[in-house]
Amino acid sequence: MDNAATNEGWTTLQKIYYPLTIAWNFVLISTTILFIMQHDSPAIRYRSITLSVFMVIGNSLVTTLYLGREPTYDQFPCFVNIWVSSVGMPLWLTAVAGRFARLAFLYHFSQAKLVAGQSSQNSSTHYVDISPKEKIIHSPTLVLDQNWYYKHREKFTTNYIVKLISGALALQLALTLLVQAFTTKFQITPTIALGHCLVGWEFIPIYLTSAFYVFVLCPLFISWLRGVHDAYGIKRELMADFTLGVIAFMLYILFAALPALKDVIKLFPAAHWSVVALMISHVFSIILPTIDAIRGTDKQSSSSSMASFESMLEDPQQFEIFKRFSLRDFSVENALFYEHMMRLRVACSDLKGDRSELPVDVLLEINMIYSKFIASDAEFELNLEATTVREIRRRFQSKDIGLDVFDRALVEVRNLMFRYTYPRFIKMGQKSLQETDF
């Protein structure tokens, strides 16, 4: 945009773009803080706070650059233009790709847990005699060792994805450093090149990597998400981010490359398509989930009643549907733990809690539940309070094992299901839940 003709034009643009840049960064920071404050909400936690913050940082870098340079683009330091672009856009794109990978893992890993849990009930379950009057169901080990997602779960942790993102950024910066060594248009020494550096061969590495993320990496993850359903709208949000990214990238290239659009660019610069896309993406990724988390916290108890929750737990058919829904809620382990505890309690209803009176088979069952749901390396590790976990582990270490050893954990699991999973289960009205794939 040629805005250097008059000082008045400069002043007008400065009055428009500088307050807009400051206001937008205020929105980014304030809403992200609120987003982080809701970290206890599953809807926020499963969106990966770290990767979401990376998206916000990339968003801030790109939008601040594209908006802040507009009033003085003909005197703007060119090296800032290329270096901020080399960090901001790849950071946002890789964070989106990382969230695609996390969602695919969460769903397929939950699916594997559910299949393992179902297999434990339907295949090898058998009855063990305790006395002429009573029997107990001895559940087989729920094996996940052969599952691909379980064996590679460390590669889908946020820390591992952050390392991959860091490596991708390091490669991008290395390419930019190489470009910097051969360019005069973006030179830093002996003098800093200024202005008229919005396009050039120097941006080819950024264009190529952006095209790779948009047209190769993200479509790969989209195919991976085929058949994936989540209760938080994360897939829908990521698809919106991807769609916005593709549209913005195509429009940016189109407007920047076609001379016929020169007059349009004077009114709406090509880079502003990226700004609009990033602003809308922030609404989807941060603002709306934060609002839902805040509103959801207040409406959890009003959306469902304890009586209806208890009724669902006591109805085998309804509980089975609820258990399948927990796959979409990424909380399968809660339903499986509750199911194991109910079977154990029913089978041991005539037994006392004193460890000295517990049959060997009952102790084996209790130890199996501990190893699968409570132990530090548990395949179905529960999201319990730290004090609860410490107390259970202390009792097992001291051999103080009774039928009441998991009581506190069971109360917490029931509360988690009632407060978080059940309201979403009711909200979806059980629609299409019976079609959940295994």
From TrEMBL:
Transmembrane segment boundaries: 16-37, 49-68, 80-101, 160-183, 203-226, 238-258, 270-291
InterPro entries documented for this protein: RGS (IPR016137), RGS_sf (IPR036305), RGS_subdomain_2 (IPR044926)
Keyword Cell inner membrane: no
UniProt cross-references to Pfam families, sorted A to Z: RGS (PF00615)
Keyword annotations from UniProtKB, A to Z: Membrane, Transmembrane, Transmembrane helix
CDD domains attached to this UniProt entry: RGS
Protein name: RGS domain-containing protein
KW rRNA processing (keyword) present: no
Residue ranges of domain RGS in the record: 308-427
Top-rank lineage group of the source organism: Eukaryota
Family annotation (SMART domains): RGS
Matching PANTHER family: DOUBLE HIT, ISOFORM B, REGULATOR OF G PROTEIN SIGNALING
Organism: Basidiobolus meristosporus CBS 931.73
